[in-house]
From TrEMBL:
Lineage: Bacteria, Bacillati, Bacillota, Clostridia, Lachnospirales
UniProt keyword annotations, A-Z: Cell membrane, Membrane, Transmembrane, Transmembrane helix, Transport
Record-linked Pfam families: BPD_transp_1
Species whose genome carries this gene: Anaeromicropila herbilytica
Membrane topology category: Multi-pass membrane protein
Name of the protein in its database record: Sugar ABC transporter permease
InterPro entries linked: MetI-like, MetI-like_sf
GO terms for biological process, alphabetical: transmembrane transport
Amino acid sequence: MKNNNNKKPIGKDEIRMHIVFYILVGIFALICLFPFILMITSSFMKEKEIITEGYKLIPKSISFSAYQFLFLNPTKLISAYRVTITIAVVGTALGLFLMSMAGYVLCRNDFKYRNQIAFFIYFTTLFSGGLIPSYILMVNGLGLKDSIWALILPGLMSPWSIFLMRNFMKSIPDSLYESAAIDGAGDFYIYWKIFMPLAKPSLATIGLFLVLGYWNEWYNAMLYIQSTDKYPLQYFLQKIVSQANVQLLVQQGLSINTADLPSESIKMATAVVAIGPIILAYPFVQKYFVSGLTVGAVKG
């Protein structure tokens, strides 16, 4: 048997380079992690301590007043979570389906009008109709005032994501399409059974952007949503922060010291409540995210 251990030994200079690289990456990771740790610890600080000493990594004492205030009405908070999860799941699924189909069509060389349609999609990134036409379209044209669909439709399609999907699908060999077509497969079958499984990195990348967009949705809710039971999480939390005052605490019957009134710490608590679930979802798509972003951006 042949000896396959022909790897070149690593030199001392390369080892030093690796050590320096890992140290720099570790320092950068700690710098990125610092705001999250500060946010969590500050959400448990007393209001008086924040005002006098500012936000700290290690508070002198622990206070749950901010979270008590957030969960004064857990039913509405759960409802806001439900609305946000609904628009994130539905919007992401529809967005991936529509944009992947658009990318598949635009990557096909046998599609006659692909360049004209690609220019039309690109043109929308340069100009927009503006807020007033968009509002008239959503309210008067589509009748989506106070509707969940008013939160889903505006973020459903992204020209950048369509081009990312198209460029990624261009990297898939044409021989797969030709072989399936010879066997009698239709375009939708080829798209669904061949291109979609191979496009997982690109789908994960675009899906992550869509989920983040819908999860952070608040602006369209401010414009179109009137019913409190249809508030998404971010808009609901913004309402809570704006109502964090002594009068509301007294009305809700919460027993709390004046020094602990959560006008500052509640800002950090709302951030913890808002970003917690979405951070937990990121590791599941991380391995696809990098490859999808780089391949889709380079190919063309």
